[in-house]
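The instructor's notes for this session suggest beginning with a concrete chain rather than abstract definitions. Hand out the sequence below and ask the class to guess, before any prediction is shown, which regions might be ordered.
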Amino acid sequence: MPPLLREIVRETLAREPDLDVVAEHQASVDVARAVEEAEADFVIVSSDAAAHTSVAAVVGAERGVRALEVQSDGKESVCVPKTRSGPGIRAEQGER
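After discussion, reveal the predicted structure:
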């Protein structure tokens, strides 16, 4: 994820009182392992990382983990449900 987009996501999450960022990784990591170590229940990943099998394994697992895939240009995101049985919820980002 580009640095500016990463900062926008970080600042947005910081304003939410019921959300805690438990880990942040700038390089490629094994997402399944990172989720397990951080005990995360929601993951925000770039579109490159979302294509990796470790993300599918975590989201498809019975852990109740969901993921938000953010395109590198920041114009679109996909909220992946707890199971892969149905399509994710796709939303274009824009000014409100």
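Then share the key points. The first strand starts at residue 42 and ends at 46. The chain has one domain: 3-92.
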